[in-house]
Amino acid sequence: MSQTRNSGTLVLVSPVESVPKPQVRGEACLVLLHPPGPEIGKRTPLQRQSYIIGRDSDADLVISRSAVSRQHAQLARDEQGEWWAIDMGSTNGTFVNEQKIQRQRLADGDQVRFGDAIFKFLNGANIESAYHEEIYRMTILDGLTGVHNKRYFLEFLDRELAGAKRHGHALGLVMFDIDFFKRVNDEKGHLAGDHVLKEVSQRIKSRMRREDLFARYGGEEFACILASTGLEGTVIFAEHVRRMIEERPIMFDQTPITVTVSLGVACAYNEPNLDPPTLIKRADDNLYAAKRGGRNQVVPSPHSLGLR
Question: Does domain 150-300 have CATH number 3.30.70.270?
Answer without folding.
Answer: yes
